[in-house]
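ARCHIVE CARD
SHELF: 3
SLOT: left
DATA:
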Amino acid sequence: MEKRISATASQPMELYDFLRLTLGLTKRQIRQAKFREAGIRVNGQQQRVTSVLSPGDVVEVRLEAGQKPSDHLVLSEKPVEILYEDGDICIVNKPAGVATHPGGGCYGDTVANRLMYYFHNKGESLRIRPVGRLDRETSGVLLFAKNQAAAGRLARQRERKILRKEYLALAEGQFEGMEEWTISFPLGRDPENPCRAVCTPEGKEAVTHCRILQEYAEYTALTVYLDTGRMHQIRAHMAYLGHPLLGDELYGGSRELIGRAALHARCLTLRQPFTGESLTVEAPLPEDMAYLWTTEYF
């Protein structure tokens, strides 16, 4: 999907500095735009980045031409719930049991496949890029970028912790004497089962923040934030504490009350990658977890 951005100079400045400081472009993006037809224009004319702008000059940058769309994806006609969409991003409510994108033997019906069918029906030809992912069993907010430039800016937001998710989880048992805590223990792949993550000093940094929302007879409702995004981070850290998520068989949880890991990405906060507008997008709690949230078992 082609992406152009523009801005007006308010003071004399070298064009290269304007591209970096005002438009927030990376060195790589500027280098690519320089060699693109009509890539960098001032008042409608192609200009060298060493030229000096005058107040009132309008700078336009062609960040990317129309890229090859994700035609390799099989179109899935199953519905996708759009929570928010603009010209740069699309945020969906991922149902539990559906993978984020093709892989691991699942190629015909993922959120990406459903999104491509959605955009196909809108007449939009683009390459969609997931920004982060959710496990197959996890439900909730899932972010996609509609162009490469947006994907890069959102990735930097993740690094700076501007882009953040809030999760809701149901963990087995009760956390006596604990209301709010942080788990900071490295995670790596289980050498005996590469589909699992385990806490190991040789793993990568993993930091999880937890707060109790409500206690029930057999489980506890938590809100969870992450400083890092390791594979199965919440699930593995809860199991490490001896409180696996309800329904999470892979990490020792029981499926007596729910048929999947009880984890939901409830809320996503970010800035629109080009306007800087603050966005907060929420996904309603799915029925299986909502039922347990309001029902006590004795």
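SLOT: right
DATA:
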Amino acid sequence: MGTMRHINILGITVALAALWGCGHRSNGADGGETIPVEKEFVVKNDSMLYGLVCDGTSDSVVVLWPFHGDPVAYSCVEARQDGRIIGKPEIGDWTGVMVNPEDTTEVTMVVDLDQLKGTWTYTVMPVMKDLQNMSKRMQRRMMANVPDSVKETFFVPREYGFTLKRGHKAEAVGRVMRRNTLEDDSPVVYPEVKRYRQWHMSNGRLLLVSGAGTLHDGASQTVSYVVDTLDLVYMDNDSLVLEADGVRCGFHRKQNGMKANEAAERAVERQERMER
């Protein structure tokens, strides 16, 4: 862990590209997997065991009632020491564990999936359109000359992220529903919002699935899925840390996706009034 870069992306747009642009992807054209449109995305070769947390679970033991079979008690001492307990498993919670193949009485990872569900966001800032291809040093110089009134009007933070729901459904957070009719004339641009549709777990890692579009080939139709594969580093009630390719990103829990961008919606409304 010591050799990995630790980047706090709150307010840093660059880390967005580092996480979503450089994360591990599924095989296939354009980093996606082409699947018949009538079929759902299927996770393959997943060794994680899923079930409900039962009475008897403690700091050293997790008792899991799998969906098929009887409750089993596993030692989780080493997993806790290694920081591989993601969340705080509570009785009745839907949870996934990775069983140690060399010692089936212990688990190497525990993830409370019920606690993982919800809306997780981080803050992004826009960049001036003319600055996108400039060096960071030149960007700082140019920004120093931008009037404060312009910064207050256009440099409004937005919340990006995702909502994980029941049934493996996912939604992206970051879209501002009130569209600025003069958006093309705005001096700033925000990063693209990834439109997630599903989420899954696979071998202790989080898969965020987005649809890249429907392809038509004669009478058949296929949909191209793009999968971002992320490592779970830490989670508590309000914080989540994910990692991709050595880059760690911190998220905060929000009430819901609509609440996350209320301030941005109001800012766009103000901009529209100014431009009329």
